Amino acid sequence: MEKYEFPDYTHLAKPNARYAMIGNIHGFFFNSQGVPLVTVGPHWTFFAGLNCFIFFLALIFIFVISPSVSNLNTVIGTVVFGFLMTNYLLAGLSNPGIPKSRVPDEGDLDPVDSEFQENYCKVCDVLMEEGTKHCEDCGVCIEELDHHCPWTSKCVGKGNLSYFYGFLLGILFTFIYIVVTLGLKTKYEHQ
Fold this sequence. Notes:
This protein is of the alpha+beta class and about 190 residues long.
């Protein structure tokens, strides 16, 4: 898998800015190239709520339920919940793949050409490459848009897709861990 290269965002925020709106997405802590280090989407309440739920579930299992099973189970629980939370935070806070604004060069398609009209987003002022789509919820174009996910608070695209898949895998591992831990706890209580 090739590494995602962030585009130039200097048209959206000054380099080293602390905050700027990018469509409906909140961008925080821009680096010297104008790339937001943290982005939060318009559905941030879902993101915050699910973060709290996972965190409190992790605390209950790691500090209350797992110690009654075994120390190894507590360590496994810490790793599983850590993997889940890390991927969820990265999926929800990283740049989903917002393309840089680019006015077409003279060598590009003619502005009256139908192919140009199909590939140009007037809202974002972006000449969209293949796979880039505009999201009405986020108010921006997203490179390699997979879907808009309110649970991560924004779109899942080129910049955060691998973290989203890690989050889904983390949900599976967490579910298996919870079922096995509760089964072992019940078994030990009835012995």
